[in-house]
Design goal:
The protein has 7 helices and 2 strands; from the N terminus they run H-H-H-E-E-H-H-H-H. The protein is mainly alpha-helical. The chain is elongated and about 60 Å long.
Length: 156
């Protein structure tokens, strides 16, 4: 499974909101852009999908921005990825057996189901709170400035 840019950026954005908001204070798009090193324009697109899936709420006005819709302990990484990139599936026939004419008889499909189940189990077991409490957002990238594009938001 490849984690596309939109999914990685959605996760970084959600971690930044969780770190900078006490649950009621909105975090501005400018603050999020600075914290994540992602353009405001791209963050607007990411935020739209997160709002559509009820993970973020937009706040209008001078102190506007974004807030989480639930406490970070109740938001899983799986929810964030699925909101941003769609269902998690290593192959199409896992979510939609009709996608493949051989799905019913495929001896390899069991392996794909096990892999997909393992990935979902890990992502469902990770909360936004766990990520947000793991240190600075840029901590893992300090020594590798050229690698910031795909920089993870968690440290060791």
């Amino acid at each position: 499974m490849k984690l596309y840019t939109r999914g990685r950026y959605a996760l970084r954005m959600m971690v930044a909101v969780a770190r900078r908001s006490d649950g009621s204070d909105a975090v501005s798009l400018g603050t999020l852009a600075s914290a994540t090193m992602i353009s405001r324009r791209y963050l607007e697109q990411v935020a739209r999908r997160l709002r559509e899936h009820s993970l973020l709420r937009a706040v209008s006005g001078r102190s506007g921005g974004y807030v989480l819709t639930r406490p970070p302990q109740q938001i899983t990484v799986a929810e964030i990825f699925e909101a941003s990139i769609g269902p998690i599936s290593v192959v199409d026939c896992i979510r939609d057996p009709d996608h493949c004419l051989e799905a019913e008889f495929c001896e390899c499909r069991w392996v794909y189901e096990q892999v997909n189940s393992g990935i979902l189990s890990v992502l469902d077991g990770l909360t936004l709170d766990a990520l947000a409490s793991r240190g600075s957002a840029r901590q893992g990238c300090r020594d590798y400035p050229s690698a910031t594009h795909g920089c993870p938001t968690t440290g060791p």
